[in-house]
Amino acid sequence: MSAAEQQTGARGPTIRERLLQSQEGIVFLLAVVAFLAFSILLPSFLSSGNLLVLVRSVSILGILALGMALVVIARGIDVSMIAVMVVSVSWAFVITRAGYPFELALLIGASFAMLAGIMIGTLIAFGEVPPIFATLAAGSVIYGTGRTFFFTLEMQNVPPDTEWFRLIGQGNVFGIPVTVVAFALLCVVVQLVLRRTRFGWMTYAMGNNPNTARVSGLPTRPMIVAQYASTALIAYVAGLILASSAAAINARLFNSTMIYDILLVVVLGGIGLNGGHGSVRNVILGTVFVGILLNGMTIMNIDYTIQNLVKGVVLLLAIVVDSLVNPRDEQTSQQGDL
Amino acid sequence: MSDVIVEFRNATKLFRDVPAFRDVNFTLMRGEVHALLGENGAGKSTLTKVLAGLYPLSSGDMIVEGKLRSFASPADALAHGVAMVFQETNLVPSMTVAQNLFLSQENFFNRLRGINIKAQQQLQRLSFHVDPTALVSSLGAAKKQMVEIARAVQHNARIFIFDEPTATLTPEEKQHFFALMERLKAEGHSVIFISHALEEALEVADRISILRDGALVATDQSSNFTRDRIVQAMVGRQLKEELYGQTALRKGRPPGTKVLALENVSMGRAVRSATLSVFSGQVTGMFGLVGAGRTEMMKIAAGVLKRDFFHGGRVKLNGRNVRFSVPRKAVNHGIAYITEDRKLDGIFDTMGIAENIFFGRIAKGSNPASVISMSQVRREAAGWIERLNIRTIRSSAKVVELSGGNQQKVVIAKSLIQAPQLVIFDEPTRGVDVGAISEIHDIIQKLAEAGAAVVVISSYLPEILAISDRVLVARQGRIVEEMAIEEATEEKIMYAAVH
Fold first, then answer.
1. In this structure, what DSSP letter does residue B487 have?
2. Locate the ABC transporter domain: which residues (chain B) (predicted)?
3. Residue-wise pLDDT tens for chain B (499 aa)?
4. Which residues from B are below 8 Å from A214, CB to CB?
5. CA of A226, closest CA in chain B: separation in Å?
6. So where are chain B's domains?
7. Which of these, B251, B328, B297, lies nearest to B424 by C-alpha position?
8. Alpha carbon B344 to its chain's center
């Protein structure tokens, strides 16, 4: 963390840090190159319609990545985000159709997401289950519960007579899509929380050295619960925006590669999977690059399977580079943690 | 019993210019049991690890069976007949004894029956009564050692090294183990064993060597040693007199109120029914050898370790029963535990000094969401940097870039910012540069002057004598001796600590 460094403006010129910076630099350059290449090679890339689609879809990915960054900085991982997102949003819509007021239904959806996050966090903090397994299993449980008890249809349309809700996904503020504004706003909020609050500082501390955090007397277990609850809530917000822009939410997203896209954004942006560093800036960087990549490939009409292959290879490369640039400290690493 | 099988000539091992041992001349005869004694950190383990191929020598020669050798790895050492049996055995618990014996020697296809028969023959030849088909996880500590030894014999080992083999054994198992060493001796093998138990060494060893501060101070037939002569050889020192010289005349501070009391506290095998008290306004020194359970006792008090729920005994803070399940609860009750291993659980290494210190403040706060004032962080840090004299090139330096002593001061500041009533220092000067040692001792004294209850755990006797007002000696998970500083001497303390 570099809160004090930002104040003094002096940066420690360690090799690892230089590499980190160059990793950010490389990703930024790649993003620029990809953007220029697509602009020249694909005539439809620069059209206003496409750019609009690009920033909208990218914003949702970015919001999800913000949530993921929160747990990854604290040395966790949450692969249940998509499950939480589709189930809580779909349920909110189902409840509305059943006759509840829309606003109340949205609150219920939010509570469900929170509850799911708290449950997962409790499993990790008190049950001491490695985060990857806890969230992997919990994701399936949440999705299964949703599909079994809350709704049976895959596709849940946004309930009628909710004009203001449609505006979130489709409206503009001073010509900027509301989606983008929401992403920007969340970026500011998350950045402030991470850099200026106890919650944020403790998050970095837990990622930096969980043992020190515990022995120093930081409330590591409640913090883990709070982190996963926050992430679930952010996933819910992303889900609402997604539903609003598409006028529906599709539960099948759970089976898509979206969660890997999120991880791709986080790792590629430079937030190491071993925790303790990275910030919102890295999320924005990763989002922009991945967004351009995905959009360009879609316009080029590249087959979906090949797109996945490309994404997979990039993710693999990013993780390898990450583990080279941020080697996990042998002394503090434990078997089975991720 | 005549020819030399291992010889060290002027052997020196440096770790980053700090000698673990220097100019050691050591010989091991064929068919002898050789005990290696010394305080913690005297260099015994390092010496044997060089022989077992874990480290190379920095200078000097190691001659094994007449040839100059330098082993690249434990496997290399084993190939040349040297086997080291560690305290925690290197067996695969989910496999049978026979499978473990033939580990890494399996054929491409294995017949379990064939292996079992071969293992049975091997074990019988050594007259070890172990069932080759039993799972290793079902065996006791002594039987595991037997298996480990049988495996070493299987690999044609002729020199056996045991590092604290008896520390975890019951008295009965110990007798088994000694019989086992006799058998190895009878087969013409040589044994080096490191121990803290003097009686054992006197009883079973043919010769005894004593290391002190990295130098070999005595080697002789064990019949020429007495317990007193060993203790004197272990502690008699002239090094660092200037740093610790003023001890003899010091008078201890009187005890204040009883802050912490442990009553019959137990935890597994490390702490067995320990009872002790700590008073405010004075420094309580805790001495003990490796495995005595000092650190564990204090970690239980500080909530870092959890004790047995039903039979764990009582911990009293200011006369009231407390049970801390996590360190946070202890911190909120004014207990600070300053770790013996900074890197593991003392510092946030890539964060700055100011941030590290401020986490002490954050830990004691109640509202996790509140906003942090950067000016407060810098102000408080500046105060502590000045008070503890933390030296750094840049104010924004990361803790990992500091020297050991300054890192330790940051860890101390992180705890003292919480204004604790009880401060536990676990090996406060381990890995600390010489200049910072006396500064850290000053910090400890000032804390006690100011009325806090201070516990200092140390493996270094002069340190205990230099800073304590009261000395507790731990042995085998208990406090076995308590003395005022006026009556404490190195010999007395060491006498109580060994067994």
1. G
2. 6-238, 243-498
3. 458 888 888 888 887 667 788 888 888 888 899 998 887 667 888 888 888 888 888 888 888 888 888 888 888 888 888 888 876 667 888 888 888 888 777 766 767 778 888 888 888 877 777 888 888 877 776 777 778 878 887 787 888 888 877 766 666 777 877 888 888 888 888 999 888 777 788 888 899 998 887 888 888 888 888 877 887 787 765 444 445 555 555 678 888 899 999 999 988 878 888 999 999 999 999 998 777 888 889 999 999 988 767 777 889 999 999 988 899 999 999 999 999 888 888 899 888 899 999 999 898 876 767 888 888 888 988 899 999 988 876 767 788 878 788 889 999 999 999 999 999 999 898 777 767 888 899 999 999 999 999 999 988 888 898 899 999 999 888 999 999 988 888 888 888 887 6
4. 304, 326-328, 345
5. 10
6. 4-235, 242-497
7. B297
8. 15
C-alpha torsion sign, points B83, B84, B85, B91 = negative
Residue A13 located in a structural domain: no
Tell me the chain A residues in contact with residue B359 when contact means C-beta distances shorter than 8 Å: 201, 205, 213, 216, 218
* Residue closest to B126 by CA, chosen among B75, B168, B189: B189
Q: Is there a contact between A315 and A263 (Cβ–Cβ < 8 Å)?
A: yes
Q: Flag whether A253 is in a domain.
A: yes
CATH code reported for the domain at B242-497: 3.40.50.300
Domain hosting A272: range is: 24-325
Concatenating the DSSP letter of every residue in B401-453 gives GS-HHHHHHHHHHHHHTT--SEEEEESTTTT--HHHHHHHHHHHHHHHHTT-E
Q: With 0.80 as the threshold, say if the pTM is over it.
A: no
Find residue B258's DSSP bridge partners: B279
Alpha-carbon distance of B154 to A260, in angstroms, equals: 51
Domain annotation covers residue A137? yes
**CA-based torsion, B83, B85, B86, B90: positive or negative:** positive
Q: Do A209 and B337 touch (CB under 8 A)?
A: no
Q: Is B183 an 8 Å CB contact of chain A?
A: no
Q: B185 — contact with chain A (CB < 8 Å)?
A: no
CATH of residue A163's domain is: 1.10.3470
- Helix, strand or coil, per DSSP, at residue B214: coil
What's the structural domain count of chain A? 1
Fold of B4-235: Rossmann fold (3.40.50)
Residue A41 within a domain = yes
- Using a CB-CB cut-off of 8 Å, the residues of chain B touching A220 are 326, 328
Task: Judge whether B4-235 and B242-497 match in fold.
Answer: yes
| Per-residue exposure over B365-393, b if at least 16 CB sit within 10 Å of its own CB, e if not | eeebeeebebeebbebbeebbeebebebe
Instruction: Write the residue in B348, B354, B415 that is nearest to A4 by C-beta.
Output: B354
Nearest residue on chain A to B337, alpha-carbon basis: A215
Mutate to test the interface with B, among A215, A227, A331, A332 (most CBs of B within 10 A): A215
Rg (CA), chain A: 20
DSSP, collapsed to helix, strand or coil, labels residue A133 as helix
Q: Is B361 on the interface with A (CB under 8 A)?
A: no
